[in-house]
Amino acid sequence: MVLFNVQKPSPNKKQTKFCSQLFQFVLTTMKRHSRSGSVGRVPESDLEKSHVRETNVKKGKRYTIKEYLIDYTANSNLHGLRYIGEKERSPVEKFFWLFMFICCVVLCAGLIRKVYIKWNESPVIVSFAENSTPVWQIPYPAVTVCFETKSLQTRFNFTKYYHLYMNNDTFMRLTEEERNMYEDTTLVCDDHLAPAKGRKFSDGNATVENLRQVSPNISEFFFGCKWKDVPKDNCMDLFSPILTEDGFCYTFNTMGAEELFRMENLHKEYKYLNTINSSQSWSLEDGYPPSTPLETYPHRGSGYGAKAGLTFLLQTNEIDLDYLCRGPVQGFKILLHNPAELPRLSQQYFRSPLSQEVVVAVRPKMMTTSDGLKPYHPLVRQCYFPSERYLRYYKVYTQANCEIECLTNFTYVRCGCVHFGMPHGPDMKICNAGSVACIKKAQMELVTVDIQSRLDKELDQNDTLGESRAVASQCKCLPACTSIEYEAETSQADFDWKALYTAYNITIGEDIVDKKYSRVMIFFKEAQFITSRRSELYGQTDFLANCGGLLGLFMGFSILSVAEIIYFLTLRIVCILWRKRNSKKIQDNYPDQFSSPKPSKFKH
């Protein structure tokens, strides 16, 4: 009988403590790999191999990164990654899932790019408001009226002086005052009548005063006025004189000069607007406050129809008509505009012919903008809020005011002067007849689409073009985010006042036999109108929701996936390094326990 005698080492306290720490270490390692159970049950042999890998220091840098990536793919909640990291999968399966995952990532990135382009380039949508707006919530349109005859023939015969001025023999016999009067009058006539040999510059106050002398005053201009079917004793209660590019005109319901202009930046030679009324509570951005009474200024519409609007009767004498300054068409030019704008009758208007009645049905067009668009750049939303664009000569920003100021600056750079009807600073000169061709050219250059290319070609020929190009590039007169426009639907018929006199058996006196009359009626067509509104087509929340939907559809990606990636790149690495450090300390403290086991001694 053979006896085997195995020598067993006697346990001591140090070994007992080591075994306890080693047991805790193994339990920690098993817990770390417990999540892989969702992929597949880990065999006990794998745990033993993991223990050996932890205890035997074999991990190089490359090996550690590989194991780390496998750990991430095995525990990630992104679709398909777990099949790539599983060791039980064949290379063909891993390649298939890697290919599918890359395809989903590429396709998802392409769709997100399209969503971003749409969100970035067209985030604004213009739609109709849900509810209609009553007309009493907006101001009645400002009405500006100009006479086509700029110089009454009984005061200054423009046709006569045209021939005298153009004839070299009679030109020398004209006095300086007559030459200046003719040249000043040509500023409000057709452009081709302005003599190129005339003065290039003039005193602005003298030019305006000459035009005032030859223009009809308000009593010669209006025969009678009614507001909301109530006759006025004097039309001065409703209309005020205003200086425009067309000379002296008369305006109704326009804001006062103190509310419209920055008086500190304007020149002091003459005034553009003389009105006794001033805005009491209305602003373009906020409208009328709820507590505003019905009778206020600017006037507000109280209803629709002819009896709720403005009616006025215009008059002139046939002897005062001039057919050279403005051509063969006589009558009156009328413009409906925002009360906060300076009218430009050279751009748009409708005409009231002589001996005609014109009925004007007004349809407001109002555009508002949601506050959600304020963070966007003005070029993206295509409008300016009041605090975003400063005008030097106007307190209220509108597209029309911006265009006038831009034209003023551009004309001054190109011609060295400005038209008397353009609001300007105290240091700017006033153009006269000799500069009309330059003014006309500047207006065409400013509105021409290819202005930049033309300026580049001529840059070496004229030094002012470089500066004018800079002025033109700074215009960018976008609409105001809150804007009001008025569309006019006109109809007209003969106004035979002599037949009316005959019907009432009223004798027509010699003093009125050559009178010409025109009647104009302006009113709101409907009691309500539909407002347009700019709003967000794709907000930040919508963009995030679209991107999240695509990521979830293709990859199962969510916010927690981001947290998981951050975890594996930060906290997970720190924990692994900390564990490896502790493992190294154990190995350093108990080197004998991690050495290879020696064979036991047997006794036979």
Automatic annotation (TrEMBL):
The keyword Ion transport applies. Keywords: Ion channel, Ion transport, Membrane, Sodium, Sodium channel, Sodium transport, Transmembrane, Transmembrane helix, Transport. The keyword Transcription regulation does not apply. It comes from Iphiclides podalirius. The chain crosses the membrane at residues 95-112, 550-578. Pfam families: ASC. It is found in: Membrane. It is a multi-pass membrane protein. This is Pickpocket protein 28-like. Belongs to the amiloride-sensitive sodium channel (TC 1.A.6) family.
